[in-house]
Amino acid sequence: MKEVRGLRATTQALGAIFWKSIKHYMRLPGSFALYIALPFLFTLLIFGMGRFVGGGSAPTYFAARTGTTNILVYEMLGSAVWMTSWVVVEDVGVSLRNEQVNGTLEQNFLAPIDRATLLVGMSLADIVITTAIFLVAVGATIAFTMPTDIVALTQAYLTLLIGLIPLFGISFLFAGIIIRFKEPYVFVQIVNVLFAVLTGTYYPVAFLPYWIRLISGLLPQTYVIEDMRQIILANQNMVSLYGNVFVLFALALAYPTIGYAIFKRIERKASVTGEFSKY
Amino acid sequence: MNSRNTSSVSRIGSEFKAAFLKDLRSYVRYPAWLLGEFISTPLWFFFFALGVTLFSPTGPNTSSMSGFNFFYFGFIFIILFSTAVWGIGQSVRNEQQAGTLEQFFLAPVNRVTLIVGRWARVFLTDILIVGYTTVIVYALGNEQPVLHNPALFFLSLGLYEVGLIGFGLFFAGLTMRIKSYNTLSNMVFFGYMILTGALFPISVIPVPFRYISMAIPFTYFIDLMRNAALSTSTILPESFEYLAATILAVSMLLIGFAAFNKIEEDARVRGTISAI
Fold first, then answer.
1. Mean predicted confidence (pLDDT) in B186-204
2. A chain contacts of residue B58, beta-carbon cutoff 8 Å
Protein backbone atom coordinates (compact mmCIF):
# COMPACT_ATOMS: atom_id res chain seq x y z
CA MET A 1 0.00 0.00 0.00
CA LYS A 2 1.36 3.38 -1.00
CA GLU A 3 1.60 5.80 1.89
CA VAL A 4 1.03 9.53 1.67
CA ARG A 5 4.36 11.26 1.94
CA GLY A 6 5.69 14.79 1.77
CA LEU A 7 5.39 17.68 4.18
CA ARG A 8 2.06 18.99 2.90
CA ALA A 9 0.32 15.64 2.93
CA THR A 10 1.70 14.77 6.36
CA THR A 11 0.60 18.15 7.71
CA GLN A 12 -2.90 17.59 6.29
CA ALA A 13 -3.07 14.15 7.89
CA LEU A 14 -1.83 15.52 11.22
CA GLY A 15 -4.40 18.32 11.01
CA ALA A 16 -7.22 15.86 10.34
CA ILE A 17 -6.27 13.62 13.27
CA PHE A 18 -5.84 16.66 15.48
CA TRP A 19 -9.33 17.98 14.67
CA LYS A 20 -10.87 14.58 15.16
CA SER A 21 -9.42 14.43 18.68
CA ILE A 22 -10.46 18.00 19.47
CA LYS A 23 -14.01 17.23 18.27
CA HIS A 24 -14.11 14.24 20.62
CA TYR A 25 -13.24 16.55 23.49
CA MET A 26 -15.81 19.15 22.48
CA ARG A 27 -18.43 16.43 22.37
CA LEU A 28 -17.68 15.54 26.01
CA PRO A 29 -17.24 18.87 27.81
CA GLY A 30 -17.77 17.13 31.17
CA SER A 31 -14.56 15.12 30.80
CA PHE A 32 -12.63 18.24 29.97
CA ALA A 33 -14.13 20.11 32.93
CA LEU A 34 -13.11 17.21 35.16
CA TYR A 35 -9.49 17.41 34.00
CA ILE A 36 -9.52 21.11 34.83
CA ALA A 37 -11.17 20.59 38.23
CA LEU A 38 -9.14 17.59 39.43
CA PRO A 39 -5.89 19.47 40.23
CA PHE A 40 -7.85 21.86 42.45
CA LEU A 41 -9.80 19.07 44.13
CA PHE A 42 -6.74 16.94 44.88
CA THR A 43 -4.88 19.97 46.22
CA LEU A 44 -7.83 20.88 48.42
CA LEU A 45 -7.96 17.35 49.74
CA ILE A 46 -4.24 17.18 50.56
CA PHE A 47 -4.39 20.64 52.11
CA GLY A 48 -7.37 19.73 54.29
CA MET A 49 -5.67 16.53 55.47
CA GLY A 50 -2.47 18.46 56.10
CA ARG A 51 -4.27 21.10 58.15
CA PHE A 52 -5.75 18.37 60.31
CA VAL A 53 -2.40 16.65 60.87
CA GLY A 54 -0.31 19.78 61.41
CA GLY A 55 -2.93 22.06 62.95
CA GLY A 56 -2.05 25.77 62.98
CA SER A 57 1.63 24.95 62.47
CA ALA A 58 1.02 22.94 59.29
CA PRO A 59 2.54 25.69 57.03
CA THR A 60 5.65 25.80 59.24
CA TYR A 61 6.16 22.04 59.04
CA PHE A 62 5.52 22.19 55.31
CA ALA A 63 8.10 24.97 54.85
CA ALA A 64 10.67 23.04 56.90
CA ARG A 65 10.39 20.12 54.49
CA THR A 66 9.97 21.89 51.16
CA GLY A 67 11.67 25.25 51.61
CA THR A 68 8.54 27.22 50.73
CA THR A 69 5.49 28.45 52.60
CA ASN A 70 3.51 28.72 49.37
CA ILE A 71 1.60 25.46 49.81
CA LEU A 72 -1.01 26.19 47.16
CA VAL A 73 1.43 26.85 44.31
CA TYR A 74 3.70 23.96 45.35
CA GLU A 75 0.81 21.49 45.30
CA MET A 76 -0.91 22.92 42.24
CA LEU A 77 2.27 22.58 40.16
CA GLY A 78 2.48 18.90 41.05
CA SER A 79 -1.24 18.43 40.43
CA ALA A 80 -1.14 20.10 37.02
CA VAL A 81 1.79 18.02 35.78
CA TRP A 82 0.19 14.85 37.11
CA MET A 83 -3.06 15.71 35.32
CA THR A 84 -1.07 16.31 32.14
CA SER A 85 0.36 12.81 32.25
CA TRP A 86 -3.12 11.48 33.13
CA VAL A 87 -4.53 13.09 29.95
CA VAL A 88 -1.70 11.84 27.74
CA VAL A 89 -1.85 8.27 29.07
CA GLU A 90 -5.65 8.15 28.73
CA ASP A 91 -5.73 9.76 25.32
CA VAL A 92 -2.83 8.37 23.36
CA GLY A 93 -2.53 5.12 25.29
CA VAL A 94 -6.21 4.24 25.33
CA SER A 95 -7.51 5.85 22.15
CA LEU A 96 -6.25 3.04 19.91
CA ARG A 97 -7.98 0.56 22.19
CA ASN A 98 -11.18 2.60 21.91
CA GLU A 99 -10.86 2.47 18.13
CA GLN A 100 -10.42 -1.29 18.48
CA VAL A 101 -13.61 -1.60 20.54
CA ASN A 102 -15.53 0.70 18.18
CA GLY A 103 -14.36 -1.39 15.23
CA THR A 104 -12.60 1.57 13.58
CA LEU A 105 -8.98 0.63 14.26
CA GLU A 106 -8.60 -1.31 11.04
CA GLN A 107 -9.93 1.64 8.99
CA ASN A 108 -7.45 3.93 10.72
CA PHE A 109 -4.58 1.57 10.10
CA LEU A 110 -5.62 1.15 6.46
CA ALA A 111 -5.45 4.92 5.87
CA PRO A 112 -2.44 5.66 3.67
CA ILE A 113 -0.41 7.29 6.42
CA ASP A 114 2.32 5.82 8.57
CA ARG A 115 1.70 4.94 12.20
CA ALA A 116 4.02 7.67 13.47
CA THR A 117 1.79 10.31 11.85
CA LEU A 118 -1.25 8.72 13.46
CA LEU A 119 0.33 8.68 16.93
CA VAL A 120 1.80 12.19 16.63
CA GLY A 121 -1.55 13.53 15.39
CA MET A 122 -3.27 12.17 18.49
CA SER A 123 -0.55 13.70 20.64
CA LEU A 124 -1.01 17.15 19.08
CA ALA A 125 -4.52 17.50 20.46
CA ASP A 126 -3.14 16.72 23.90
CA ILE A 127 -0.79 19.68 23.66
CA VAL A 128 -3.87 21.91 23.44
CA ILE A 129 -5.63 20.12 26.29
CA THR A 130 -2.59 20.10 28.58
CA THR A 131 -1.97 23.77 27.79
CA ALA A 132 -5.51 24.53 28.90
CA ILE A 133 -4.97 22.56 32.12
CA PHE A 134 -1.70 24.40 32.72
CA LEU A 135 -3.23 27.82 32.10
CA VAL A 136 -6.23 27.23 34.34
CA ALA A 137 -4.57 25.25 37.13
CA VAL A 138 -1.15 26.88 37.31
CA GLY A 139 -1.77 30.17 35.49
CA ALA A 140 -4.83 31.12 37.51
CA THR A 141 -3.23 30.06 40.81
CA ILE A 142 -0.12 32.16 40.17
CA ALA A 143 -2.12 35.11 38.84
CA PHE A 144 -4.04 35.18 42.12
CA THR A 145 -1.29 34.34 44.60
CA MET A 146 1.93 35.74 43.13
CA PRO A 147 1.00 38.07 40.22
CA THR A 148 4.49 39.56 40.03
CA ASP A 149 5.94 36.17 39.08
CA ILE A 150 3.68 35.67 36.09
CA VAL A 151 6.72 35.92 33.74
CA ALA A 152 8.18 32.76 35.23
CA LEU A 153 5.12 30.96 33.88
CA THR A 154 6.54 31.03 30.35
CA GLN A 155 9.62 29.11 31.44
CA ALA A 156 7.51 26.70 33.46
CA TYR A 157 5.31 26.13 30.39
CA LEU A 158 8.39 25.53 28.22
CA THR A 159 9.56 22.91 30.70
CA LEU A 160 6.16 21.26 30.48
CA LEU A 161 6.32 21.23 26.66
CA ILE A 162 9.75 19.58 26.68
CA GLY A 163 8.47 17.06 29.22
CA LEU A 164 5.50 16.21 27.02
CA ILE A 165 7.74 14.73 24.30
CA PRO A 166 9.07 11.82 26.41
CA LEU A 167 5.60 11.42 27.89
CA PHE A 168 4.19 10.91 24.39
CA GLY A 169 6.92 8.31 23.86
CA ILE A 170 5.80 6.48 27.00
CA SER A 171 2.20 6.62 25.83
CA PHE A 172 3.17 5.08 22.43
CA LEU A 173 4.58 2.20 24.41
CA PHE A 174 1.35 1.96 26.44
CA ALA A 175 -0.73 2.06 23.25
CA GLY A 176 1.12 -1.03 22.01
CA ILE A 177 0.83 -2.83 25.34
CA ILE A 178 -2.90 -2.07 25.57
CA ILE A 179 -3.53 -3.38 22.03
CA ARG A 180 -1.71 -6.54 23.01
CA PHE A 181 -3.11 -7.13 26.49
CA LYS A 182 -6.46 -5.24 26.31
CA GLU A 183 -7.94 -4.03 29.66
CA PRO A 184 -6.92 -0.37 29.20
CA TYR A 185 -8.73 0.99 32.22
CA VAL A 186 -7.01 -1.32 34.68
CA PHE A 187 -3.71 -0.39 33.12
CA VAL A 188 -4.46 3.35 33.17
CA GLN A 189 -5.68 3.13 36.77
CA ILE A 190 -2.39 1.60 37.91
CA VAL A 191 -0.17 3.83 35.77
CA ASN A 192 -1.85 7.06 36.89
CA VAL A 193 -1.48 6.39 40.59
CA LEU A 194 2.03 5.00 40.05
CA PHE A 195 3.05 8.21 38.28
CA ALA A 196 1.53 10.25 41.11
CA VAL A 197 3.51 8.34 43.75
CA LEU A 198 6.81 8.19 41.85
CA THR A 199 7.10 11.71 40.45
CA GLY A 200 6.70 13.73 43.65
CA THR A 201 3.31 15.18 42.82
CA TYR A 202 2.67 16.42 46.38
CA TYR A 203 6.07 15.95 48.01
CA PRO A 204 9.75 16.10 47.07
CA VAL A 205 10.99 12.82 45.58
CA ALA A 206 13.72 12.92 48.23
CA PHE A 207 10.98 11.58 50.56
CA LEU A 208 11.00 8.28 48.69
CA PRO A 209 13.38 5.41 49.44
CA TYR A 210 16.59 5.39 47.40
CA TRP A 211 15.63 2.48 45.14
CA ILE A 212 12.27 4.08 44.29
CA ARG A 213 14.03 7.34 43.49
CA LEU A 214 15.99 5.47 40.82
CA ILE A 215 12.69 4.66 39.09
CA SER A 216 11.48 8.25 39.61
CA GLY A 217 14.59 9.44 37.79
CA LEU A 218 13.43 7.61 34.67
CA LEU A 219 10.15 9.53 34.50
CA PRO A 220 10.06 12.92 32.77
CA GLN A 221 7.35 14.28 35.08
CA THR A 222 9.79 14.08 38.01
CA TYR A 223 12.04 16.65 36.32
CA VAL A 224 9.16 18.79 35.06
CA ILE A 225 7.62 19.08 38.53
CA GLU A 226 10.98 19.76 40.17
CA ASP A 227 11.97 22.37 37.57
CA MET A 228 8.62 24.14 37.67
CA ARG A 229 8.83 24.42 41.46
CA GLN A 230 12.37 25.74 41.23
CA ILE A 231 11.45 28.26 38.53
CA ILE A 232 8.31 29.59 40.17
CA LEU A 233 9.06 29.22 43.87
CA ALA A 234 12.87 29.53 44.05
CA ASN A 235 13.51 32.13 41.31
CA GLN A 236 15.58 29.72 39.24
CA ASN A 237 15.56 29.63 35.44
CA MET A 238 16.01 27.02 32.75
CA VAL A 239 19.68 27.95 32.36
CA SER A 240 20.48 27.41 36.02
CA LEU A 241 18.56 24.13 35.88
CA TYR A 242 20.46 22.98 32.79
CA GLY A 243 21.18 19.55 34.28
CA ASN A 244 17.50 18.63 34.55
CA VAL A 245 16.72 20.25 31.19
CA PHE A 246 19.45 18.18 29.59
CA VAL A 247 18.01 14.99 31.11
CA LEU A 248 14.56 15.97 29.80
CA PHE A 249 15.96 16.41 26.28
CA ALA A 250 17.70 13.05 26.54
CA LEU A 251 14.44 11.41 27.65
CA ALA A 252 12.66 13.27 24.82
CA LEU A 253 14.95 11.49 22.41
CA ALA A 254 14.93 8.09 24.07
CA TYR A 255 11.27 7.48 24.95
CA PRO A 256 9.62 8.26 21.60
CA THR A 257 12.25 6.11 19.84
CA ILE A 258 11.84 3.18 22.23
CA GLY A 259 8.06 3.62 22.51
CA TYR A 260 7.53 3.72 18.77
CA ALA A 261 9.84 0.76 18.16
CA ILE A 262 7.97 -1.37 20.68
CA PHE A 263 4.61 -0.19 19.34
CA LYS A 264 5.64 -1.19 15.79
CA ARG A 265 6.84 -4.56 17.01
CA ILE A 266 3.55 -5.28 18.79
CA GLU A 267 1.63 -3.98 15.80
CA ARG A 268 3.52 -6.26 13.40
CA LYS A 269 2.82 -9.23 15.62
CA ALA A 270 -0.84 -8.25 15.99
CA SER A 271 -1.29 -7.99 12.24
CA VAL A 272 -0.01 -11.58 11.90
CA THR A 273 -2.11 -13.01 14.74
CA GLY A 274 -5.24 -10.99 13.93
CA GLU A 275 -5.11 -9.37 17.37
CA PHE A 276 -6.50 -6.04 16.12
CA SER A 277 -10.05 -7.21 15.81
CA LYS A 278 -10.12 -9.06 19.12
CA TYR A 279 -11.58 -7.62 22.26
CA MET B 1 -42.06 -6.05 34.81
CA ASN B 2 -41.66 -7.12 38.41
CA SER B 3 -42.57 -10.68 39.28
CA ARG B 4 -45.68 -11.33 41.36
CA ASN B 5 -43.66 -13.87 43.35
CA THR B 6 -41.05 -11.41 44.55
CA SER B 7 -42.86 -11.03 47.87
CA SER B 8 -41.62 -14.46 48.89
CA VAL B 9 -38.52 -14.30 51.08
CA SER B 10 -37.03 -17.47 49.59
CA ARG B 11 -37.59 -16.12 46.10
CA ILE B 12 -35.81 -12.90 46.96
CA GLY B 13 -33.03 -14.94 48.58
CA SER B 14 -32.49 -17.04 45.45
CA GLU B 15 -32.62 -13.94 43.23
CA PHE B 16 -30.04 -12.28 45.44
CA LYS B 17 -27.82 -15.36 45.38
CA ALA B 18 -28.08 -15.61 41.59
CA ALA B 19 -27.26 -11.92 41.16
CA PHE B 20 -24.31 -12.19 43.55
CA LEU B 21 -22.90 -15.29 41.83
CA LYS B 22 -23.39 -13.79 38.37
CA ASP B 23 -21.42 -10.72 39.36
CA LEU B 24 -18.74 -12.74 41.12
CA ARG B 25 -18.29 -14.91 38.03
CA SER B 26 -18.01 -11.82 35.79
CA TYR B 27 -15.46 -10.36 38.18
CA VAL B 28 -13.17 -13.39 38.38
CA ARG B 29 -13.38 -13.81 34.62
CA TYR B 30 -11.23 -10.67 34.31
CA PRO B 31 -8.25 -11.20 36.62
CA ALA B 32 -6.76 -7.91 35.38
CA TRP B 33 -9.52 -6.01 37.23
CA LEU B 34 -8.70 -7.85 40.41
CA LEU B 35 -5.00 -7.26 39.95
CA GLY B 36 -5.61 -3.58 39.18
CA GLU B 37 -7.63 -3.04 42.33
CA PHE B 38 -5.15 -4.90 44.50
CA ILE B 39 -2.23 -2.89 43.15
CA SER B 40 -3.74 0.58 42.89
CA THR B 41 -5.67 0.71 46.19
CA PRO B 42 -2.62 0.53 48.50
CA LEU B 43 -0.81 2.90 46.13
CA TRP B 44 -3.55 5.52 46.61
CA PHE B 45 -3.18 5.12 50.35
CA PHE B 46 0.59 5.68 50.23
CA PHE B 47 0.15 8.57 47.81
CA PHE B 48 -2.08 10.48 50.22
CA ALA B 49 -0.05 9.44 53.26
CA LEU B 50 3.18 10.78 51.73
CA GLY B 51 1.48 14.02 50.70
CA VAL B 52 0.18 14.59 54.21
CA THR B 53 3.53 13.79 55.85
CA LEU B 54 4.80 17.21 54.71
CA PHE B 55 2.40 18.87 57.14
CA SER B 56 3.00 16.62 60.13
CA PRO B 57 4.97 17.73 63.21
CA THR B 58 8.68 17.19 62.89
CA GLY B 59 9.04 15.84 66.46
CA PRO B 60 7.54 12.67 67.95
CA ASN B 61 3.73 12.47 67.83
CA THR B 62 2.29 12.66 71.34
CA SER B 63 -1.34 12.50 70.27
CA SER B 64 -3.36 9.61 71.69
CA MET B 65 -5.04 9.10 68.33
CA SER B 66 -2.49 8.79 65.52
CA GLY B 67 -3.06 10.37 62.10
CA PHE B 68 -2.55 6.89 60.72
CA ASN B 69 -5.71 5.56 62.35
CA PHE B 70 -7.73 8.57 61.27
CA PHE B 71 -6.69 8.15 57.63
CA TYR B 72 -6.92 4.38 57.79
CA PHE B 73 -10.62 4.59 58.61
CA GLY B 74 -11.07 7.40 56.08
CA PHE B 75 -9.61 5.09 53.48
CA ILE B 76 -12.15 2.38 54.40
CA PHE B 77 -15.04 4.89 54.21
CA ILE B 78 -13.87 5.97 50.75
CA ILE B 79 -13.60 2.41 49.47
CA LEU B 80 -17.10 1.66 50.74
CA PHE B 81 -18.49 4.84 49.23
CA SER B 82 -16.97 3.94 45.88
CA THR B 83 -19.07 0.75 46.14
CA ALA B 84 -22.21 2.86 45.89
CA VAL B 85 -21.00 5.09 43.09
CA TRP B 86 -19.04 2.69 40.91
CA GLY B 87 -20.29 -0.62 42.24
CA ILE B 88 -24.04 -0.15 42.31
CA GLY B 89 -24.43 2.91 40.08
CA GLN B 90 -22.03 1.78 37.42
CA SER B 91 -23.60 -1.68 37.22
CA VAL B 92 -26.57 -0.37 35.24
CA ARG B 93 -24.24 1.57 32.96
CA ASN B 94 -22.07 -1.52 32.36
CA GLU B 95 -25.10 -3.61 31.40
CA GLN B 96 -26.29 -0.73 29.19
CA GLN B 97 -22.95 -0.59 27.35
CA ALA B 98 -22.73 -4.36 27.04
CA GLY B 99 -26.24 -4.34 25.51
CA THR B 100 -27.58 -6.70 28.18
CA LEU B 101 -29.68 -4.26 30.21
CA GLU B 102 -32.93 -5.11 28.44
CA GLN B 103 -32.46 -8.84 29.04
CA PHE B 104 -31.55 -8.01 32.61
CA PHE B 105 -34.71 -5.96 33.09
CA LEU B 106 -36.92 -8.46 31.25
CA ALA B 107 -36.01 -11.21 33.72
CA PRO B 108 -38.98 -11.89 36.05
CA VAL B 109 -37.06 -10.75 39.11
CA ASN B 110 -36.86 -7.63 41.19
CA ARG B 111 -34.34 -5.14 39.75
CA VAL B 112 -33.40 -3.94 43.20
CA THR B 113 -32.50 -7.46 44.29
CA LEU B 114 -30.24 -7.77 41.27
CA ILE B 115 -28.53 -4.50 42.10
CA VAL B 116 -28.18 -5.42 45.76
CA GLY B 117 -26.61 -8.72 44.62
CA ARG B 118 -24.06 -6.67 42.77
CA TRP B 119 -23.48 -4.56 45.88
CA ALA B 120 -22.81 -7.71 47.91
CA ARG B 121 -20.11 -8.84 45.50
CA VAL B 122 -18.43 -5.41 45.52
CA PHE B 123 -18.68 -5.28 49.31
CA LEU B 124 -16.98 -8.67 49.57
CA THR B 125 -14.09 -7.67 47.30
CA ASP B 126 -13.79 -4.33 49.11
CA ILE B 127 -13.36 -6.13 52.41
CA LEU B 128 -10.64 -8.28 50.85
CA ILE B 129 -8.87 -5.18 49.52
CA VAL B 130 -9.13 -3.41 52.88
CA GLY B 131 -7.71 -6.48 54.65
CA TYR B 132 -4.89 -6.86 52.16
CA THR B 133 -3.96 -3.17 52.33
CA THR B 134 -4.04 -3.27 56.14
CA VAL B 135 -1.54 -6.11 56.14
CA ILE B 136 0.76 -4.21 53.73
CA VAL B 137 0.52 -0.98 55.70
CA TYR B 138 1.19 -2.83 58.95
CA ALA B 139 4.17 -4.67 57.44
CA LEU B 140 5.69 -1.45 56.09
CA GLY B 141 4.90 1.03 58.82
CA ASN B 142 4.26 -1.14 61.86
CA GLU B 143 1.10 0.87 62.53
CA GLN B 144 -1.85 -1.08 63.89
CA PRO B 145 -5.48 -0.09 63.38
CA VAL B 146 -7.48 0.21 66.61
CA LEU B 147 -11.17 -0.47 67.20
CA HIS B 148 -12.32 0.69 70.63
CA ASN B 149 -15.96 -0.34 70.42
CA PRO B 150 -16.52 -3.03 67.77
CA ALA B 151 -20.27 -3.40 68.47
CA LEU B 152 -21.01 0.29 67.95
CA PHE B 153 -18.65 0.40 64.98
CA PHE B 154 -20.50 -2.40 63.18
CA LEU B 155 -23.84 -0.82 64.06
CA SER B 156 -22.69 2.47 62.49
CA LEU B 157 -21.22 0.56 59.56
CA GLY B 158 -24.60 -1.12 59.06
CA LEU B 159 -26.35 2.26 59.00
CA TYR B 160 -23.75 3.58 56.58
CA GLU B 161 -24.25 0.58 54.28
CA VAL B 162 -28.05 0.98 54.32
CA GLY B 163 -27.57 4.63 53.35
CA LEU B 164 -25.05 3.65 50.69
CA ILE B 165 -27.41 1.13 49.08
CA GLY B 166 -30.09 3.83 48.89
CA PHE B 167 -27.63 6.29 47.45
CA GLY B 168 -26.33 3.66 45.02
CA LEU B 169 -29.87 2.89 43.83
CA PHE B 170 -30.47 6.58 43.20
CA PHE B 171 -27.19 6.74 41.29
CA ALA B 172 -28.05 3.60 39.32
CA GLY B 173 -31.25 5.35 38.26
CA LEU B 174 -29.29 8.43 37.23
CA THR B 175 -27.23 6.34 34.79
CA MET B 176 -30.40 5.89 32.77
CA ARG B 177 -30.81 9.67 32.61
CA ILE B 178 -27.28 11.05 32.48
CA LYS B 179 -24.88 9.85 29.85
CA SER B 180 -21.71 11.58 31.13
CA TYR B 181 -21.94 9.40 34.21
CA ASN B 182 -18.20 9.23 34.81
CA THR B 183 -17.85 12.99 35.19
CA LEU B 184 -20.76 13.14 37.62
CA SER B 185 -19.53 10.20 39.68
CA ASN B 186 -16.04 11.70 39.95
CA MET B 187 -17.43 15.05 41.09
CA VAL B 188 -19.66 13.38 43.68
CA PHE B 189 -16.76 11.25 44.85
CA PHE B 190 -14.53 14.28 45.39
CA GLY B 191 -17.36 16.16 47.05
CA TYR B 192 -17.71 13.24 49.43
CA MET B 193 -13.99 13.11 50.23
CA ILE B 194 -13.71 16.84 50.84
CA LEU B 195 -16.99 17.64 52.58
CA THR B 196 -18.00 14.66 54.72
CA GLY B 197 -15.02 14.42 57.04
CA ALA B 198 -13.80 11.15 55.55
CA LEU B 199 -10.18 12.26 55.36
CA PHE B 200 -10.14 15.19 57.75
CA PRO B 201 -12.59 16.36 60.42
CA ILE B 202 -15.19 18.86 59.28
CA SER B 203 -13.89 21.27 61.94
CA VAL B 204 -11.03 21.98 59.47
CA ILE B 205 -13.56 23.23 56.89
CA PRO B 206 -14.27 27.00 57.06
CA VAL B 207 -17.67 27.84 58.53
CA PRO B 208 -19.90 28.63 55.54
CA PHE B 209 -18.81 25.38 53.87
CA ARG B 210 -19.07 23.42 57.10
CA TYR B 211 -22.84 23.89 56.98
CA ILE B 212 -22.86 22.01 53.65
CA SER B 213 -20.93 19.20 55.36
CA MET B 214 -23.47 19.11 58.16
CA ALA B 215 -26.30 18.82 55.64
CA ILE B 216 -24.81 15.66 54.10
CA PRO B 217 -26.02 12.43 55.79
CA PHE B 218 -22.71 10.64 55.19
CA THR B 219 -20.99 13.09 57.54
CA TYR B 220 -22.89 11.55 60.48
CA PHE B 221 -22.30 7.91 59.50
CA ILE B 222 -18.59 8.63 59.23
CA ASP B 223 -18.58 10.57 62.48
CA LEU B 224 -20.26 7.70 64.34
CA MET B 225 -17.97 5.03 62.91
CA ARG B 226 -14.92 7.06 63.84
CA ASN B 227 -16.37 7.72 67.28
CA ALA B 228 -16.85 3.99 67.81
CA ALA B 229 -13.44 3.09 66.46
CA LEU B 230 -11.25 5.85 67.85
CA SER B 231 -13.37 7.43 70.62
CA THR B 232 -13.39 10.81 68.87
CA SER B 233 -16.07 13.29 69.91
CA THR B 234 -19.27 13.38 67.85
CA ILE B 235 -20.71 16.40 66.02
CA LEU B 236 -24.10 16.12 67.76
CA PRO B 237 -24.82 14.54 71.17
CA GLU B 238 -24.00 10.85 70.68
CA SER B 239 -27.40 9.24 71.27
CA PHE B 240 -29.14 11.93 69.21
CA GLU B 241 -26.66 11.37 66.38
CA TYR B 242 -27.39 7.62 66.38
CA LEU B 243 -31.10 8.37 66.15
CA ALA B 244 -30.57 10.89 63.36
CA ALA B 245 -28.26 8.49 61.48
CA THR B 246 -30.87 5.70 61.70
CA ILE B 247 -33.60 7.95 60.33
CA LEU B 248 -31.28 9.20 57.58
CA ALA B 249 -30.20 5.68 56.59
CA VAL B 250 -33.76 4.38 56.31
CA SER B 251 -34.88 7.53 54.48
CA MET B 252 -32.01 7.24 52.01
CA LEU B 253 -32.88 3.62 51.28
CA LEU B 254 -36.56 4.43 50.70
CA ILE B 255 -35.80 7.50 48.58
CA GLY B 256 -33.20 5.61 46.56
CA PHE B 257 -35.63 2.76 45.96
CA ALA B 258 -38.45 5.11 44.93
CA ALA B 259 -36.18 7.23 42.73
CA PHE B 260 -34.78 4.17 40.94
CA ASN B 261 -38.28 2.82 40.22
CA LYS B 262 -39.52 6.22 39.05
CA ILE B 263 -36.56 6.83 36.74
CA GLU B 264 -36.84 3.31 35.34
CA GLU B 265 -40.57 3.78 34.66
CA ASP B 266 -39.86 7.07 32.88
CA ALA B 267 -37.06 5.49 30.84
CA ARG B 268 -39.35 2.64 29.80
CA VAL B 269 -42.02 5.10 28.66
CA ARG B 270 -39.50 7.16 26.72
CA GLY B 271 -37.68 4.08 25.40
CA THR B 272 -34.32 5.27 26.69
CA ILE B 273 -33.32 2.34 28.89
CA SER B 274 -30.70 1.14 26.43
CA ALA B 275 -29.68 4.56 25.10
CA ILE B 276 -25.94 5.05 25.69
1. 88
2. 61, 64
* C-alpha to C-alpha distance for A17 and A120, rounded to whole angstroms: 9
pLDDT digits (tens, 9 = 90+) for B7-29: 677 888 888 888 888 888 888 88
Contacts of A65 in chain B (CB under 8 A): 53-54
DSSP label at residue A57? G
Residue A92 domain-assigned? yes
Q: In whole angstroms, what separates CA A268 from the centre of its chain?
A: 27
Buried b (16+ CB within 10 A) or exposed e, A170-187: bbbbbbbbbbbebbbebb
Nearest chain B residue to A209 by CA distance is B50
Q: In angstroms, what CA-CA distances link A104 with A194, A277, B199, B244?
A: 30, 9, 43, 54
Number of domains in chain B: 1
Does residue A1 form part of some domain? no
In a domain, B15, yes or no: yes
Task: Tell me the chain A residues in contact with residue B78 when contact means C-beta distances shorter than 8 Å.
Answer: none
The distance of B218 to chain A (nearest Cα, Å) reads 17
Cα torsion through B120, B125, B131, B136, rounded to 10: -160
- Nearest by CB: B194 against A44, A57, A64: A44
How far, in Å, CA of A24 to CA of A126, rounded? Answer: 12
User: Would you say residue A179 has pLDDT above 80?
Assistant: no
B57 assigned to some structural domain: no
The ipTM is 0.83
Residue B197 distance to chain A (closest CA, Å): 10
**Could you tell me which of A56, A232, A147, A127 has the C-alpha nearest to residue B55?**
A56
Interchain CB distance below 8 Å, B33 and A48: no
Structural domain containing residue A124:
7-277
Contact call for B190 and A194, based on CB within 8 A: no
Which one of B47, B56, B201 has the shortest CB-CB distance to A196?
B47
Residue A62 with chain B: CB contacts under 8 Å:
54-55
* B184–chain A Cβ distance below 8 A for any pair: yes
Number of domains in chain A: 1
Burial of B79 (0-12, 13-18, 19+ CB in 10 A): buried
B276 in a structural domain = no
Over residues B71-99, the mean pLDDT reads: 81
- Could you report the per-residue pLDDT of A14-42, keeping only the tens digit for each? 888 888 888 887 887 887 888 888 999 99
Give a yes or no: residue A259 inside a domain: yes
Domain that holds residue B190: 4-52+64-270
DSSP B5: G
B217: in domain: yes
Tell if the CB–CB gap between B187 and A34 is shorter than 8 Å.
Answer: yes
Residue from the list B40, B48, B57 with its beta carbon closest to the beta carbon of A190: B40
pLDDT digits (tens, 9 = 90+) for B105-128: 777 777 778 778 888 888 888 888
